[in-house]
Design brief:
Blueprint (H helix, E strand, L loop, with lengths): L1 H16 L2 E6 L5 E8 L2 E6 L5 E6 L4 E6 L4 E5 L1 H8 L1 H12 L5 H18 L8 E11 L2 E10 L2 E9 L7 H21 L13 E8 L2 E9 L15 E2 L5
Parallel strand pairs: 6-12
Antiparallel strand pairs: 1-2, 1-11, 2-3, 3-4, 4-5, 5-6, 7-8, 8-9, 9-10, 10-11
Length: about 240
């Protein structure tokens, strides 16, 4: 009995610390997106744009975008997102830097003119998207899923979702996803572009298939091989790009 308990505890421990990689492919079986989870972090790589990738840290609720062609990165957290939400203040700060070398009178005139032009072109804040289960089901690559419609204003997107448990993810990994989705959904509403996939209002779902904003992908595989934590770290030779607000 003691040996059996030891084996069971060992198995549970192994499951708890296992890392996860989700791989999505297009209809030609080409990899289009890869999501990797370990150490309460997520790395998302869109294969059709291999010059950038993103790392989200659920411990600090910040996401870092890396631009591999420029060897630069920038960090977005609560403070930066709140700054983006105050568009008027953000525009004023940017103009303050850009016009700093001008004489005071000319600077004020240019600031007023440019501020009006920029604010007029900025996107309007979007309402929160609505998600609804259609009652239809499907299966892709062995993953059974439920069809979901997403609606935001006149735009519609379609997904097929499954619970994180059914695809073999842990509760802590799912918590990283929901934390990230809540973060970017608020940002998307502020900047007028929403490509989030937050199904938490419906249940503990993740996408098996997604189709929105001209992009689509289907979950091909779920892998639990150990990941090198260096993939979440700042690469050597990269410099931080300061945000203009």
């Amino acid at each position: 009995m003691k040996i059996l308990q030891t084996i069971l505890l060992s198995s549970l421990t192994t499951v708890a610390i296992a890392d996860t990689t989700l791989t999505y492919t297009d209809n030609k079986d080409n990899v289009v997106m890869k999501m990797q989870f370990a150490d309460n972090k997520m790395k998302a790589t869109s294969v059709d744009d291999d010059s950038t990738y993103m790392v989200y840290d659920a411990n600090t609720t910040t996401f870092t975008t890396y631009m591999t062609d420029k060897k630069q990165y920038f960090v977005m957290g609560k403070e930066e997102i709140e700054a983006l939400g105050d568009m008027s203040n953000m525009v004023n700060k940017i103009l303050e830097k850009q016009l700093a070398d001008m004489p005071a009178e000319q600077r004020e005139m240019m600031r007023g003119m440019l501020s009006s032009m920029i604010k007029a072109q900025m996107p309007k804040e979007m309402p929160k998207p609505e998600y609804s289960l259609t009652g239809k089901t499907a299966s892709y690559n062995g993953f059974d899923c439920e069809v979901v419609k997403k609606k935001i204003q006149k735009k519609k997107s379609e997904f097929c979702v499954s619970t994180y448990k059914d695809v073999g993810m842990s509760a802590s990994e799912y918590a990283v996803i929901t934390s990230f989705q809540h973060t970017i959904e608020g940002l998307a509403q502020q900047v007028g572009h929403d490509s989030s996939m937050d199904f938490s209002s419906l249940g503990d779902y993740i996408p098996v298939k997604y189709k929105q904003a001209g992009k689509s992908g289907t979950l091909k595989s779920v892998n639990h091989d150990n990941l090198d934590l260096e993939i979440f770290a700042i690469p050597a030779g990269f410099s931080k790009m300061e945000m203009p607000f």
